[in-house]
Amino acid sequence: MTILFRRTRALEAQIDQFLDAVSEGCLVFEQGIDDYLRHDEASFEERRKAIGIFEARADELRREVETRLYAESLIPDHRGDVLGLLENLDNVIDQAKRTLGQFEVERPDVPEDLAADYLALARACTQSTQHLVNACRAFFREITAVRSHIHKVYFFEKEADRLADSLKRKVFAKDLELARKIHLRYFCLHVETLSDRAEEVADRLAIYTIKRTI
Amino acid sequence: MSWIYLTSGLFLGWSLGANDAANLFGTAVGTKMLRFRTAALVGSVFVVIGAVAGAHGTSKTLGRLGAIDAPAGAFMVALAAALAVVLLLTKSGLPVSITQAIVGAIVGWNLFTGRPTDLKTLGQLVSSWLISPLLSALIAAALFGATRAFLRRLKVHLLEVDAWTRGALVAAGAFGAFSLGQNDIANVMGVFVRVSPFPETTRFGPFGATSVEMLFLLGGIAIAVGICTYSHRVMLRLGSGLTSLSPLGALIVVLAAATVLFVFGSPDLQRLVKACHLPGWPLLPVSATQAVVGAILGISVVRRSGIRTKVLGQIALGWLVAPVAALGIALVGLFVLQNVFELPVSAAPKPAATAGAVAGTPVS
Residue A34's Cα: distance from chain center in Å? Predict the structure, then answer.
C-alpha cells in the first residue's frame, strides 16, 4: 500500500509545500511593509529577498505539480481546476513580491501618522491571503470546510477595501503636495491589490468546489 | 455444418461485447480514469472466466422460454437478435440490450414454430427489465451516499481519492466483467445449448470441459473480441451522454451494475441463500445496459443533478425497439431459412395450426 501511494503522497507534499510558500510569502509581505514603515532598512531588505525566494520556490513547485498531474494523468476531472487554482495562487505571491519591490524602488514618503493605516491595510490583505490558502488546503482534503474559509477571504477583502478607502481620504485631506498625495494613493492601491487577487482566486475556488461534489 | 450455425452466436457475442460490456466500463473510460486498453484487457479476461465458471443458471431460464432444438433455428434466433442490435441501434451509437433482443427473437421462434411460450418465464424476464434497473438505482444511491459520508468524515486528499478510485475501478470492472460473463453468456450461447456441436467432453491435457462449457468459452471469447474491437465508441457515449459523472460516481455505477448482474446470475449465491433458508429468486439474464442506466439514475437522484432526458428517452426507446425488431427479423429469417433454403428450423414438424399459435398458447 505504501508503494502504491508513495508517488501520490510525494505530489501531495509538493502541493502542501506550494501552499506553504504562498502563505509564508504573504506573511513576509506584511512584515516587509511593517519594516518599511518603521524605517528598518536592513530588515526590509531581508524581507524583500525572502519573498523573492518564496515566490521562486512557489513557481518551481507549481511547474513540477502541473507537469506531474499531466504526465501521470492524475485527477482527470479536476486537473484543469487544480492547475487554474495553482496558477492564480501564484499570482497572489507575485503581487506581494511586486508590491514590496515597488516600495523598494519608489520609496514612498509615508507620513508618520498614516503608517498605522498602511500597516492595518497590509494586515487585512495578508489575512485574506491566509484564509485563501486555508480554503485551498480544504479543497484538497475537506471540501465542506472550503466555504467557511472563502467567506473569511471575502470578509477581509471588504475590510481591506474599507481601510484603503479611509486611507485615501486621509491622504487627500492632508496638506501635502499633489504629487506626494498621488504617490501615496498609488501605494495604497498596490497594497490593496493583494486582497483583490485573493478574492479572484476565492471566486474561482467557489466554482471548483461546487464542481467537486463527490 | 453445425459449426457454421454458431457464427450467428459469435456475432451476437461480439455485439454484446461492443454494447452491454462497454456499458460497464463506459463511465470509467468516459471520465478518463481508465485507459480503454486497460478496460478492454480486464473486461476480456474476466468476461471469459465468468462465462465458463458459472453461467448455467441463466441459460436454463432462456431454455424454458424457448427450447430451440434445431441448429438452423438457433442460428436464426441469435442472428435476429444480433441484427436487431447491430443494424438498428449500434450504428446510432445508443447503448442497447442484447437481453431484450434475444428474448424477442426466441418468442419469434416460438411463434413461427408454433411452440408455446412459457408465460411465467417471459413474465419473469420482462419484470427483470424493470426490477434490475430499479435495484441497480437503489444500490448505487446507497453506495453513493455512504461513499460521500465516508470521504467527508475521513478527509481524504483529492489525490488519494483519485488513486484509490483507479485501483477500485479495475477491481470493480473485473467483478463487473465476471458477472456479465456469468449472467449474459446465456443470451449469446443459450439458444445453442441443445444443439451444441462440441463433443460431450473435450480434453485439454488433464482438464476436461463439457459441451456447454466449450460453447460458453467460445461465446466468452466472442464477447471479449467485441469489447476489444468496437466498444470504445459506446463507452464514450454512455460515459458522457446521460449525465456528467465523477470518477467515484463511475466506480459506484460499475459496482451497482455488477452486483445486480451477479445477484441475478450466480448459482453459488442462489445456493447460499437457499442454505440460509431465505427466499430465493429466479436466475435471469438481465441487461447490463439497464443496470448501468439504473445506477446512473440512482446517483443523479441522490445528487439532485439533472438528467439529459432526451438521451434517457432515446435509450428507453431502444429498449422497446430491440425486442420487437428482433422478433420481426426472426420471423422473416426463419421463414426464409425454412422455405428458401429448406432448412429445418425446429426438430418437430411444424404443426398445421401455426398461424393460430400465439405466445403462451400450447399447441402440442
Answer: 16
